[in-house]
Amino acid sequence: MNARTNKPEAYTNGAEVHTPSFIDGHSVDIPILKLLKEDGSLYPNAELPELDQAKAEKVYRAFVFHRVLDERMTAAQRQGRISFYMTALGEEATTVGGAAALAPQDMIMAQYREQGCLIYRGFALTDFMNQMFSNEKDLGKGRQMPIHYGSNKLNYMTISSPLGTQIPQAAGYAYGQKLQGKDAVTMCMFGEGAASEGDFHAGLNMAAVHRAPVIFFCRNNGYAISTPSDEQYLGNGIASRGVGYGIKTIRIDGNDVLAVMKAVQFARNYALEQQAPVLIEAMSYRLGAHSTSDDPSGYRSKEEEAKWQAHDPIARFKAWLIHQKWWDEAQDKALFESLREEILAAVKVAEKVAKPPVEDLVTDVYDQVPKHLEKQLSELKEHINKYPEAYPFTAGRF
Amino acid sequence: MAQMNLLQAINNALDIAMAEDDSTLCFGEDVGHFGGVFRATSGLQEKYGKERCFNTPLVEQGIVGFANGLAAQGSRPIAEIQFADYIFPAFDQIVNESAKFRYRSGNEFNVGRMTIRTPYGGGIAGGLYHSQSPEAYFAHTPGLKIVVPRNPYQAKGLLLASIRDNNPVIFFEPKRLYRASVGEVPEDDYQLPIGKAEVINQGNDISLLGWGAQMEVIEKAAELAANAGLSCEVIDLRSILPWDVETVAQSVMKTGRLLISHEAPITGGFAGEIAATIQHECFLHLESPIARVCGVDTPYPLSLEKEHMADHLKIFEAIKRSVHY
């Protein structure tokens, strides 16, 4: 971008009018990329993403794993075995498809409903379980609520609860990659609700001005907990914001995994070649509750949910795979069954693993444990020794 | 050794840090060619290029968020917040993100390489929004380090230590002293320890404790006290978090008295934390209650700065009250 084109006089070259009129967000015409029809056939002239049978199968297996994990872990939460869970029902195409279109060295900085990325990247079932059960094998050492995953090895930044904070961070992360000449981009995922936070505006503006190779991926799923999108923003969705920041923007059908993959591959090429940001707005719908603490029947109708059930991204992709003769119903049934067993068995193992040791309370606050924390730990240990029955997870372990 | 003012010492430290590590960056509002409103980054863009020393848009949460991302990626960002009064839009990025990155991820990721520099404090006719000393807000947040230098020599050594420290550091610069404080500063690389207080003056009757620009005021009060026949031990805390309990406690066990002075309002100020800890450590050695001489619990006024400030006279009076308790 030529800096001069940004000066105010550059904007005085538009058509002159001599009676006042407004422009509004809806006058910006934003097309939507769709490749795959509901019945699993392709739109004519649909340009497919780079995808062979092995990759397509990997995407589908991640889908099924995700569905079964969501089903099993919701049940585990209802049984009181874990404290909290968030499903991604209806939105799996955005995350699994997004990860499938990236290279392994690309960083993913997500919000919280993006387990699909980790599933695709091969985060082990035991890693999922250890995190959700906050046991001593959890990579995060049992410090965060369930679903706050992170993996250095898989380039998946640990989730932070405050909304949207990863957005300016992704701009900085990508800028660092750019300065070091890395063959990598950062993909930053968030919901349309998070796009109301100041961090969204801060992050997009920073990335645009400093030309950071970051893909901002908005999962527009229609709800911020219970608040529908028409009570969240006006204008033309989140995509129009990208245009406003001077960021290349594309809107896609977020329930069409082929469109997701195509758009992310397209965006990645642009971000890498041009060393500049891209915004993707994926139109989808959160079929499930916001979390296990939420009951959507209080704010939306069964009819609305049923309408969106028909747009299920997994069913749509499965129909395409069967159409391709890359998959069949018998395989499908077997996959669901084996995953259900595997996940149930993993739950039983993870819940028996010990809680983290008491030392983990004071490590990682700083690079080294400072004196005042050492002192507080030793006082705590003394106290635990006095009342061991009150601290069953840690007593007798130091 | 060279004569440098506090700004030149900071600029010199940044220059050394950028020269030694290609991944070190300086950025913030007007930080690029202009060199920052106070010119702390003068000449760095010319020397290291626009990619490593640059202006950002006016967005503090963006600046710190960007720094968090850079640090998580492995770069060494040094972000400038133009005035400490404007650090609050970035509060969430600092206390929920910078401070907790390593802990929440089980050290899968950390932002330890980042440093936030920001000018703080009054005495420059800055009024409500160019005079605040917000260190206490951050001192309540585990995971941060907070450093405040008092003169050019300290500024260079402590800033280099902050930049190289593997934890996020907020480095508060006493802007009243930016040009007013001039001293001998080695041109070579050196570091001063973070978390270690410095006893500036030995004394027997009372320990006086402060940090940053307030040290100048405290030293002036100690002079008045000396003329009145009182011997003050003067300590510069230098690091607010973690802070050097041991040095302060040792001094108080010797003198039996402690006075803490800071610019920020007294209620909830860091002096309260120190007083509680020292009371615990030194209870049987104390000859009088621990005294606090701090700012008034009002916003920082433009016209009545002198009245608002914990000046040398207020401190002198408090010393006498303490010694004659």
Short structural description:
Chain B: Residues 4-180 form the Transketolase-like pyrimidine-binding domain. The complex is a heterodimer of chains A (398) and B (325). Chain A is an alpha/beta fold and 398 residues long.
Topology:
The complex is a heterodimer of chains A (398) and B (325).
Chain A: E1 32-33, H1 53-78, H2 92-101, E2 107-109, H3 115-121, H4 125-132, H5 166-179, E3 186-191, H6 198-210, E4 214-220, E5 223-224, E6 227-228, H7 239-244, E7 248-253, H8 257-274, E8 278-283, H9 302-309, H10 313-323, H11 329-350, H12 371-386
Parallel strand pairs in A: 1-7, 2-3, 3-4, 4-8, 7-8
Antiparallel strand pairs in A: 5-6
Helix pairs in contact in A: 1-2, 1-3, 1-10, 1-11, 2-3, 2-8, 4-11, 5-6
Chain B: E1 2-5, H1 6-20, E2 24-28, H2 44-48, E3 53-55, H3 60-73, E4 76-80, H4 91-98, H5 101-104, E5 115-120, H6 135-139, E6 145-147, H7 152-164, E7 169-174, E8 182-185, E9 198-201, E10 206-210, H8 214-227, E11 232-236, E12 239-241, H9 245-255, E13 258-265, H10 270-282, E14 291-295, H11 305-308, H12 312-323
Parallel strand pairs in B: 2-3, 2-4, 4-5, 5-7, 6-7, 10-11, 10-13, 13-14
Antiparallel strand pairs in B: 1-8, 6-12, 9-11
Helix pairs in contact in B: 1-7, 3-4, 8-12, 9-10
